[in-house]
Amino acid sequence: MMADSPHAKWIDVGPTTQIEPGMAATLPVEGGDEIAIFHTKRGQFFALVNKCPHKGGPLSQGIVHGDSVSCPLHNFRISLHSGEALGEDKGCTPTIETRVDAGRIYLLREALLAASLPPAGAVACPTDKAA
């Protein structure tokens, strides 16, 4: 089992049963951005900063479609894998590596502490090429 001591690599955020398939839960982060943890209908778990890169909408309140979520404000579709906007939309939101072990959800401590989102529209996606 993974430890959740102050120096552990992974942080235990609770049982998998706390989030119904197709839904999300939020995790407040002291001094940082709130995190949205998504449970897909396929049984996968993903974590992203709970802000759409377009206008900062709460992604946790959006509709989960397979492995993407639609922002409730302007229907931007965001990949749960990469945090990138899909289709013609542009931008991305930080993702946090997630693991499931023995029915518990764990977030990578380093990624959780590093996750923050600049003002809407200011995030470059990992696939963007420098000009």
Brief description of this entry?
The protein is mainly β. It has one helix spanning 109-114, and strands at 10-15, 23-27, 35-39, 45-49, 63-65, 68-70, 77-79, 95-96, 98-101, 104-108.
General description of the model:
It contains one helix and ten strands; from the N terminus they run ββββββββββα. It has a single domain (10-114), classed as 3-layer Sandwich (Rieske Iron-sulfur Protein). It is mainly beta and 131 residues long. It has one helix at residues 109-114; strands spanning 10-15, 23-27, 35-39, 45-49, 63-65, 68-70, 77-79, 95-96, 98-101, 104-108.
What is the topology?
Layout: E1 10-15, E2 23-27, E3 35-39, E4 45-49, E5 63-65, E6 68-70, E7 77-79, E8 95-96, E9 98-101, E10 104-108, H1 109-114
Antiparallel strand pairs: 1-10, 2-3, 3-4, 4-8, 5-6, 6-7, 9-10
Record keyword descriptors for this entry.
5% helix; globular; 3-stranded antiparallel sheet; mainly beta; 4-stranded antiparallel sheet; 31% strand; 131 residues; Rieske Iron-sulfur Protein
How many distinct folded domains?
1
Structural class, please? Answer: mainly beta
Quantity of strands, as a count: 10
Helix content: under 10%
**Tally of individual helices:** 1
Please compute the radius of gyration using only Cα atoms: 14 Å
CATH superfamily: Rieske [2Fe-2S] iron-sulphur domain
Largest sheet: 4 strands, antiparallel
CATH class: Mainly Beta
